[in-house]
Amino acid sequence: MNIKHKNKEDLKDVVNQALEDQTIKHVKLNKIGPDKANVDKLTRPSKETRQEYWGKGLTYAAIILIIILVVSIIGFVAVHGLATFTQNHVNLWKFLTSSDWNPGAGKNFVGAAPMIVTSFAVTLFSAIVATPFAIAIALFMTEYASKRGSKYLQFVVELLVGIPSVVYGFLGLTIVVPFIRNIFGGTGFGILAATLVLFVMVLPTITSLTVDALKAVPKHYRKASLALGATHWQTIHRVVLRVATPRILTAVIFGMARAFGEALAVQMVIGNAVLMPTNLISPSATLTSQLTSQMGNTVMGTLPNNALWSLALLLLIMALFFNFLVRLIGRKGEK
To answer: What is the number of other CB atoms lying within 10 angstroms of the CB of residue 249?
Structure first.
């Protein structure tokens, strides 16, 4: 009897040890008494534990794959983009400041300044035009509209996001370019047409993120302001917008990143002439429009092809800069 009791105690110790050793303790294990315990089965990983290992393994594999993919893309673009300077010996400063763009004529005609200036101009102007509209729409959705009205507006905003770029470009080519031509003269192609098209394209991005920024403002801030006698508009102007400013700036940066990287729609209305822009209605070209229109006309490894890869590298650097800016503003907003 004592021997049987001792074996029972030993088995209980084994079960308790198995519970302690098991990385992921399953609730079913606690319901098994020492008399019914199968020590071999208990010491093996359970089905739930194996599923946990598989899930964790798939997660890590996906992360590693994404990291390899990002590093590979950056490395590939960097190697081909730097070939213009390392193999073709194009001067970097001249590449950034010269307005002569004809890579087929030699290394002295690889100047990307017109495209850089146009890309920044289009991006900046579209953000300047879109931001007030986006903030106004977001304020109406969060502060004035009913829940049903806010949902309808959200649906409309999301609908704008889903429209393909080529449709925006075609609308710009059909409506915006002739309108500018009739009002201001010229061909109608240029920075102004691209700005108006990009304004519609970045508006939903900035609006959606601004709505999230305004909703994130704690309600007790509004209640405290109203309790002190401030009007609704004073509360919005001096409390809500001020608290949400870092997040709104993040929304604007996201919109600018979208505008800077847009290619097809801009290409259809910008004119695609690599000339330093002198006004808003003269044909010009952005980095993306030049890439999309010329990439298929060059031979891999030649100077014209390497020059286009340099433009792609410049776009990549700007995308990383925008991401860095977003994170920097986000950190300051958290403080």
So the answer is: 18
Other beta carbons less than 10 A from residue 29's beta carbon: 14
User: How many angstroms separate the Cα of 45 from the Cα of each of 4, 41, 54?
Assistant: 28, 8, 12
Structure tokens at 37: 């315990």
Residues 8/35, Cβ–Cβ less than 8 Å: yes
Quote the distance between the C-alpha of residue 214 and its chain's center. 20
Angle between helices 241-261 and 191-215 (to 10 degrees): 140
pLDDT at 33: 55
**Which residue, among 274, 150, 277, has the nearest Cα to 211 in the 3D structure?**
150
- Taking only Cα atoms into account, the Rg of the chain, rounded to an integer number of angstroms, comes to 30
- In this prediction, residue 26 carries a pLDDT of 52
Q: Which two tokens stand for residue 227?
A: 């309790």
Closest C-alpha among 210, 202, 211, 200 to residue 249? 210
Q: What is the pTM of this model?
A: 0.78
Nearest to 115 by CA among 293, 277, 5, 227: 277
Q: Which residues of the chain have pLDDT under 70?
A: 1-9, 11-12, 15, 18-43, 333-335
Q: What are phi and psi of 102, to 5 degrees?
A: -160, 75
Amino acid code (one letter) for 30: N
Which H, E and C letters describe the chain, residue by residue?
CHHHHHHHHHHHHHHHHHHHHCCCCCHHHHCCCHHHCCHHHHHCCCHHHHHHHHHHHHHHHHHHHHHHHHHHHHHHHHHHHHHHHHCCCCCHHHHHHCCCECHHHCHHHECCHHHHHHHHHHHHHHHHHHHHHHHHHHHHHHHHCCHHHHHHHHHHHHHHHHCCHHHHHHHHHHHHHHHHHHHHCCCCCCHHHHHHHHHHHHHHHHHHHHHHHHHCCCHHHHHHHHHCCCCHHHHHHHHHHHHHHHHHHHHHHHHHHHHHHCCHHHHHHHECCCCCCCCCCCCECCHHHHHHHHHHHCCCCCHHHHHHHHHHHHHHHHHHHHHHHHHHHHHHHHC
